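Hey, I was hoping to borrow your eyes for a little while. I've dropped the whole record in just underneath, so have a look:

——
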Amino acid sequence: MQKRGQVTVFIVVGIVILIVFSLLFFLRGSLGEASFEDEMNSLIVPKQLEPINTHIDACLTETVLDGVSILGEQGGYITLPKDIMQRSATNQFSNTLEIYKGAEVAYWYFETANGIETQNIPTLESMTTELEEYIDENFEDCFYDLDNFREQGFEIQEPTIAISEVTINNNNIQVKLVSDTSVTLKEVAKDIDKNMIIVNSKLGELYELSKRIYEKEDETKFLEEKTIDMMVVYEEIPFSDTEFNCERKLWQKSEVVEDMKEIVNTNIAALRLKPVTSVSYLEPNQEYFQIDITKPNYVNEHFQYFTSWPMQVDVSPTKGDLLVGDPLTQSVPEISKFLNLFFCLNNYHFVYDVKYPVLISLSDGEGFTFQFANIVKIDNNQPRTYEGEIINYQDSTEFSDNFCQNTVKPIETRVFDYENLQEVSGASILYKCFSTTCYLGETDSNGILNENFPPCLNGMVIAQKQGYEVSSMPLSTNKDDSVSILLDKHHTIQLEILTTNLDDGATGMINNKQAVVQFENQDNGYITMVTQEDQEIKLTSGEYKITSYLLTGEGQEIEIQTDSFVQCVEVPKGGVLGLFMKEEKCFETELQGDTLTDALAGGAVFEWNADLTNANKLTVYVPYDLVPRTQSEMLDVFNNIQTNHLNLNFRYPEIE
């Protein structure tokens, strides 16, 4: 019983200690504000000199508000962080969002030009330091126009030094400024060496709310999830679908990107936070766009993407400007191919990599706005995922120094044109080691870059230049002293697509048919796709796999007759031993006729070596087999595509 009583005493004492510490923590902020106000109220200035002191306090308040406004407009920075690689066509996002010419805001999350995911979130301490530096540098402006006071007899010794101390609270900013200012009026003199003001500002509160929004996005990826929903819902964005019709699906990538910009612009602007005063009833669409973050009722929030801002979209399986979504140009299982021929099953699935900025702005209703930008990233149709350590801005320079600036091994990099082995000047050279990529410089007029490389085993040297396909070579700095890279030049040449009849070898115009031709370079992975409407094509020299399809023209009705086919399968025999013995049974299936508006009439799959050194024009011949009238003929046309290149009347592409 005595031990139990001792335990009870210890518990009571612990609770009392906890309550005391809680009260002290709660009162510390209030006592801090009270002590600041007490000190401020204790400052005494002679009545005769009060006009000067009032002027200085008012000017100091205006200076603080100017600095706070810049902090809010630029994402918590008065001086925006510098990006190692400036904004350009190859680095259009950089580390800041250019809202319009001359106005930028920091990204709190972005991806560097060499692919490093980076956090760029200011701290309350860093904002305090920047605001103090801004006040110290601009305080002297308060003494530019004092002629009116001097005419009244004031003698003013302007400060040669000013040191401020700032505290950012939720609803105000406390500023103490120490200087060597002195003022004299007749016999009255005073060193006005300390000014203390309290400026009403929601900087602290809106900054904390912005951090909550960022943390919610970092945790749930709600911006990425909403973006994927847009891609699924809107028909303007081809994503993934199966349709039982014979209409050939065709999209222009540039048009898809423009449509996506408009869709993102509209939907991002609909996002809202939850007000403190809860709404009793929300429309379903309003509930969908509401983010689970509570905000004060006086705060107005805006999520924005403007179509003039950059948006990077990469789509697979096609990398050119043409997206074709029909069953004949997509990789589908054999059973799907079979169904496509008999039931016009149209199955397509595109994989997207998307990157675009969102500006998140919070305003207090009295003219002050705090905003920051964030990159939204979709990777292979999934919200961005990053399993490594997120690099905070304050540490990113140190991280870069630890690898990219730790250059210890001199390496000679030579870059040549693959076709003529001429030196390529102005090629950008990068070195990739695991997930980190370092920019090392550009080749000189002789196509050479002599530069120290950071240490790495099994790294990769990357060379790139406008007009060439990106190329890379492995390099380990512990054993290699030099590396040579060949770049494949892009050739833009005239294009003509004709048909060739497999029965008699006659060639002719496509006319009322549709042709789709895909070129896949087996040497460097370059892929492009064209139709008969294209007048030009961009290719690199090399060994190609070419896949071509010829389809009947849109709007041309084809009557498919009733047909039947026999299918045989092995089934277990009757009785117990049937589990080990099988017999063949055949079934006849009858397929009803139908009217099609689009059907396969020919095509081929073959390999072709392209030397485009002096090429001006490329002529491609798409084999014509027949216009099918039965399901069996449809199946024959499809199967013949794999062997049509063996036909005596087949013609390979011709270069002029």
Remarks:
- The first strand starts at residue 96 and ends at 100.
- The chain is about 25% helix and 35% strand.
- The two ends are 106 Å apart (CA to CA).
